[in-house]
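Why do we care about 3D structure at all? Because function follows from shape, and shape follows, mostly, from sequence. That is the central idea of this module. The next example makes it concrete: a single protein chain, its amino acid sequence, and then its structure expressed as tokens.
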Amino acid sequence: MYRHFILLSVSIRILLSPDLCIDNCDYAEDVLKQFVKDFGSIYGLEFVGYNVHNLIHLAEDARKFGPLDSISCFPFETFLGKLKKIVRRPHKPVEQIVKRVYETQSIQKKRKERMSVPSPLKQPHNSGPITSDLGTFKQYRKYTDGQTYVSCSMGDNCFNVGGKILIVANILQDCQVVKALCQVFENCNAFFSYPLDSTCLGIYFVSNLSKQMHLVLLDELKQKMVLLPLKSGYVALPLLYQLASFCFLPSMLPFAVVEFLDGGGVSIIPCKWFTGPAEDSCFWPPGRVNINKAVKDGVTPDANWSQYRVRILGKAENYENARVKLRRSEATSDLQTESDSGSRLGKGKQKRRPVIQSSSDEDWDNAAEQPETSSPSAMENRHSSETPHLNITHPFVQLPPPSTPSPVVSQPVPRQLVQATNTSMFVRVITLLEDIKETQRIHSRMLQSLLKQRDGPVAAVLPEGAVFPLQTVADVEALEQKLIDPVFLKEVVAVVVEIGGSTVDEATRKMMAFIMDNALSRQYNFVGRHGKQEFRGLKIFEVLYGSLKKNALTSQITRKEAEKAASKWFIGARDRGGNRMAGAQCRVQERYTLVTRFR
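And the structure:
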């Protein structure tokens, strides 16, 4: 069973890893097939359900869309909890979320503008360890620059450098150069050998930490490891992703900045518009299509779209970064970075290029379209090959050879992009202004209510003769006689309103619990049906309604809403004070009595 579970662990780890899944999906697929086959033999064929069989198709998903975590819903499910905390009431939840997110982003932006750039080196000390020849170096316990986090404490001090597992003992700085003083595990072996050597996945069994110190540049500490104690050593497991953000491979980046080779200028396109794996030609929509919207939405190309020869200048993980690279493309021939590609496509000459635009690059979704500078020319026959950068070999798996794209030829379609109007932009501005005015009206009402409370008496006191909570019907009748006096009623309302409540139901529940005892509430309902007393015609209801109107957060309540809330409170009266549990126990006792009687 352990060997069977290892099959699942190895295959899923390959499909999760950005470095392994691209070139080793076939191997992972074969391992998953073996896992499903053995599942029936070990646990029984009747347990091979859809969930087990569907594991075979994970490799195809990774082959088509990239690592499994890039198409996982878990990040969205996790973020859903944050969104639910933002929503304060059920009315217009989407607008509440948008406004709260905008406020948070604005505050964070202002804080970043005010804050100076902090030093990545944290917690200076002089306690070592350090060698005699490094005495002039400054010592620190932590290093963090937003992308990398290194610490001398357990949990963030283990790294894999060139197949050697290191433990960071101290962080040193000299002449703006940051280095790490490390200890190396002398014994570094494979943790398992079935279905492949675990070192191919970066998993090691390490032991015997050497006392000799080694100095390593901090830039070399890229792959962080997790140490799990096992017997006389540790199992070292690599983290699949960097701490700060998801690590995209070039082939997984969704947007590309391309140059049309026959004088057509440069533009942003979704990577799905490339005609083949060589990425030397792309589809381009006809002139009637809103190019900017099609690029942002990643529209799937149609069969009637034209095809043109292109050269990739750079790739980006989102549309905003692609726009930045598009502006840079006017002055440089190569936009590739370490995150885009491991090698440059050629230095080229510095020259400005015309930028193909169909609509504004501002944040408005349907802004004005701009005329295209020129149309890309028809592409010529061209082919290239790709060489995989990492492979895992196994006796029963043959990885596929590099693919060669077939040449594509098409004729150019001349067109001119028509400039649209800015109507949608002005509509959006007016809508935002209306929302701001409505928010100001709400804030004004709340401010006026707070000012009234401040200018009023410091603390309201019950008038003489008012005793709460009411416990008998006689108490209710006596209070009704006193509430005929409007001054007496006003003083009672001033006391009840201080109980407060953020919603109508919450305020009603708190205020009625103050006014009436649980036992008394079971003798009343709102309309006086089924032999109970009527609450609707009492002056006490006027006390409740007046208190809800004076409460700042429920001041917009109508009389009908107050009646509905009071009726709801009386409906639940029979279950308060432990009566729900007592009733359930009574019913159980009655059933038991009936059963024993007929035996």
